[in-house]
Amino acid sequence: MSGAGGAGGQERLSGVGGPERLSVNHRTIRQWPLPRLVDGCARAAVGGVGLWREEVRAYGPERAGRLVRDAGLRVSSLCRGGFLTAVDPARRAAALADNRAAVEEAAALGAPALVLVSGGLPEGGRDLTAARERVADALAELAPYAAAHSVRLAVEPLHPMFAADRCVVSTLAQALHLAERFPLEQVGVTVDTYHLWWDELAPERTVHAGRLGRIAVVQFADWVTPLPEGVLNGRGQLGDGCVDLRHWRSVVDAAGYDGLLEVEVFNPGLWARDGAEVLAEVVERFRTRVL
Amino acid sequence: MSGAGGAGGQERLSGVGGPERLSVNHRTIRQWPLPRLVDGCARAAVGGVGLWREEVRAYGPERAGRLVRDAGLRVSSLCRGGFLTAVDPARRAAALADNRAAVEEAAALGAPALVLVSGGLPEGGRDLTAARERVADALAELAPYAAAHSVRLAVEPLHPMFAADRCVVSTLAQALHLAERFPLEQVGVTVDTYHLWWDELAPERTVHAGRLGRIAVVQFADWVTPLPEGVLNGRGQLGDGCVDLRHWRSVVDAAGYDGLLEVEVFNPGLWARDGAEVLAEVVERFRTRVL
Q1: What SS3 class is residue A91?
Q2: In angstroms, rounded to a whole number, what is the distance separating the alpha carbons of residues A275 and A285?
Q3: What is the DSSP secondary-structure string of B169-200?
Q4: Which residues of A fall within a CB distance of 8 Å from B163?
Q5: Contact in structure between B261 and B23 (CB atoms under 8 Å)
Q6: What is the pLDDT of residues B65-115, one digit of tens each?
């Protein structure tokens, strides 16, 4: 549970093809508490971790940031803000306040980017265009606040199967269109293979986003079927599905992105296993399927 | 079960706003055998029915065609051919043979269009582009055969959540791109609100497809959440979900499409109810949500 500080460095693997580009998103091994995740990742010579607000708040954002840094790791992203599509003024104000708090947590943690899941249609709503415009309006309020905290907002397009209830931003083109209304340092995009793999236009948009300097976060997960009820926790371990992960790695390279590559797999099968075993598998799959 | 012939016509409602534009897809009321569906639809003054190969084969395609025509109805489509992405030569040959049989059934039935669900990735496959090209190659073999039988192939883009296991054609733009390689009378597209509603580019593509004369089939269903396991049978009754159906009706109008509008809802909740009650609800929802 503890003892992560400094221990990892001595056991680091070095050289080409190692996992130093890998960042392990906490939701991939959610059975581990935060200190165990950091310790495990440091010992595995992983480059960083992607963290979630719940665990970071519980541990304390500054303290979590020190824990990660002392272990020789970086934070690739804080997940997540967003849900910015409410029409009701009170709900909208609450969402903006919550996102400001998320920005403050990201800053205290030392996360360079706050991933934003934009939100779905409001109850009874049918107007996707208007909902997307409310996301843009909310970004206009939040982006300068984030930049003042040295945090970049990372608009994430989610797979179209989430358009109704989680995220009205469904393609990288839409996410970029939103991001480009704001200064480069304020708003970027999240490129997640799970959400984008089906879209023949997404690779070209990824390269375009990279050349513009708009890629803030990159996440890898595989697509497996059948999808479970509710579809949220149906992601596949790298290599278990049909996403051409190495192609996506080459696309990200072509985009000039040289930051951490997060592995974010929501999968109850992984959560039911021993965390160390899952981490070892993630590292091995990352080496053999992504690098 | 029988007695459909001729009975419907006398009870027809007339005038603007009636259900004469409506075609009821058999899968919406699958608890009804084919003759009961035809009889019910004729009595409800519906314009047509969309049929499926299983029931049509069991009843006999010519006989089914007579049944529908004698009831004063039209067939809007036969569902379905496709699954054209196999790499294995034997599987590919079997798929082509099955699609030729589907064309023959559509011709015997008098269906103007055969809906094609292109197929997903083959076992272990990760190359969407190659799979889409195999669909194009198969169309090149099937389209002249279909046209010779006065049947048009109607390439249907399915929601991207089906890209892996059912249909590598995910957007109307992709479907049109495939169709446009062939003469107008050989290959068209299917526009289904369930599959396209999330795509901000789809309305414009629909209008474009219509102006080119490429719209072969139009289907309406609503999007509801949460999605069920496997996601196939999670469609919503018209008005129960978040698709702006009237907007889509206006898009189809703007495209110049004046054919039947099929309602195709795969939903176990509807299948568990009395068929007559479901039909009445479909007609009422069509009047109030689509027209």
Answers
A1: helix
A2: 15
A3: --SHHHHHHHHTTS-TTTEEEEEEHHHHTT-T
A4: 197-198
A5: yes
A6: 999 999 999 999 999 999 999 999 999 999 999 999 999 999 999 999 999
* pLDDT category of residue A18 using cuts at 50, 70 and 90: confident
Tokens of B107: 């011709």
Chain A contact present for B212, CB below 8 A:
no
**Domains, chain A, ordered by start:** 18-284 (3.20.20.150)
A128 chain-B contacts, CB cut-off 8 A? 197-198, 200
Decide: helix, strand or coil at residue A127: coil
Contact A116, A82 (CB under 8 A): yes
Interface subset of B 125-184, CB within 8 angstroms of A: 125-129, 132, 159-161, 163-165, 170, 174
Contacts of B174 in chain A (CB under 8 A): 200
Tell me how many degrees the CA angle B142-B145-B148 measures, rounded to the nearest 5.
150
d(CA A174, CA A195): 13
**ipTM, interface predicted TM-score of the complex:** 0.93
Does the beta carbon of A200 lie under 8 angstroms from any beta carbon of chain B? yes
Q: How far is B200 from chain A (nearest CA, A)?
A: 8
Q: State which amino acid sits at residue A93.
A: A
